[in-house]
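Page header: ASSEMBLY MODEL / two components / 568 residues total.
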Amino acid sequence: MTLVFLALLLWATAWFVNVKLADSAQAQRRSIRLLVPTIFGLTIILVWELTVRGLGVPLVILPPPSLVVQTASENLPILWKDFVQTFLKGALRGYVIGCASAILVAILVERYSFLQRGLLPVASFMAALPIIGTAPILVMWFGFDWHSKAAVVVVMVFFPMLINAVAGLRESSLIQQDLMRTYAANAWQTFFKLKLPVAMPFIFNGLKISTTLALIGAIVAEFFGSPIVGMGFRISTSVGQLALDMVWAEIVVAALAGSLFYGVMALLEKGVTFWHPSQRG
Amino acid sequence: MRKALIPVLTVVAALVVIWYVAAVALNSAWAYNKAGRANIELTFSDLVKDTLSQEKPRLPAPHQVGIEIWKTTVEKKITSKRSLVYHGWITLSSTLLGFAIGTSMGILLAVGIVHNRAMDMSVMPWAIASQTIPILAIAPMIIVVLNSIGIQGLLPKAIISAYLSFFPVVVGMVKGLRSPDRMELDLLKTYNATRSETFWKLRLPSSMPYLFASLKIGIAASLVGAIVGELPTGAVQGLGARLLAGSYYGQTIQIWSALLSAAVLAALLVAIINLLQQVTLKRMGMA
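Prediction written out in full:
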């Protein structure tokens, strides 16, 4: 019971500190802006640890974070193998294929206004559908290994990416296109020097949305059948064995992989679209 | 809208044609296999006929899926375990329950974030960061854990749905509640409006377009959550269970019909919210 009381006390103190920090004159400083969420996050983890230990919550319901970290560090080789199978083989390959083909189709769609009017409504309709449901079909077609996971990822990222890329390629204004014409630029020059650069913020938006979709697709597809390695496989079998510490360890890995993937894309965006107002200042 | 009709129909027709061709191509191996064992020469028309009417095809033809959907919706009693309406209703009810929970929690949190600086600075970065995390991965765990403490049925799936629709609503709603600009806020200050009056008369009304945009994302996410939430329960009921059972027993037609009804369900839900949006915004003079 003392531990639970300690948790409550900790929560109150941390909240008090955060309120003070947020209302202080330096609240807009970068360090404070980083410090406040960090305190919040650490508090949640500590309160979680203390309440689970204090109330004696059984392991099969919620393991304490310390146990998750311990399990993760003991099973690093397994986690790494799962990561390679699901992320590097399944998600990443599917992501590259899906995004690249969506951008190519977008270039085609942008060229022909008939396709634009016909394909875009269909694509935005498809983007709202539960595409993850194609996973059992694709697993049946491409087998249990990473090929089927990559296929699911391709289907999942294709439509959001296509919509964003087409929106981006249509972004250049008539005046800008006329300017290119006065320069006697041909279609390809207009494309590479005007349309593609202008489309970059939109394309990166699609790429960033797709990072999460790719991981979700690869993990959920493994629930429908996989070799005995992979994050989705490990999660579903560990849940079956009620080894929740292992499940949480995989979730931490998935969260880290997802955030890193997103972060890399955001960094790339910063480098490529340095001219865009949202990246300046 | 009318301008788009012909191109859209063309694209859809092209997709159906591609589907038929792909069905013939993908199912031909099995047809040749059968014919080879029976020592029959397969003419092209025989091949097409066979590939479009197999019982467990690799890719069922559109009309096969259509017939299956017709059989399992109209011709079966709604209470039957083979009725898609029954399974669809199971999925829909947990979707809606989860969506209601997730949306109301999301709006509440957004109101808190907008009115409390400490909450804004503490929670908002995590809410944004959590969008990059494959949340769906924890679905099986939620189901099993809740099952072990005795909560079964609708609620665990609804919690996954709620979780998935929660964050889009928070992010969209915070943006919406912050959308009134300085001038509008100053005007209300000159009226001597209290914080709650500012909220009800300015912030909430001007957040509506943002709210509806995130509701559309939220309801689609809720449906995905409910479907994935049905997977680890061992394929008992719901559209997700139909998908899983179909993939266990190689019943491709069943998978496709479940998939298509999930798609129709998603489209309907988004369309309903779209309609609500149009009516609301029109009444408020915003559209």
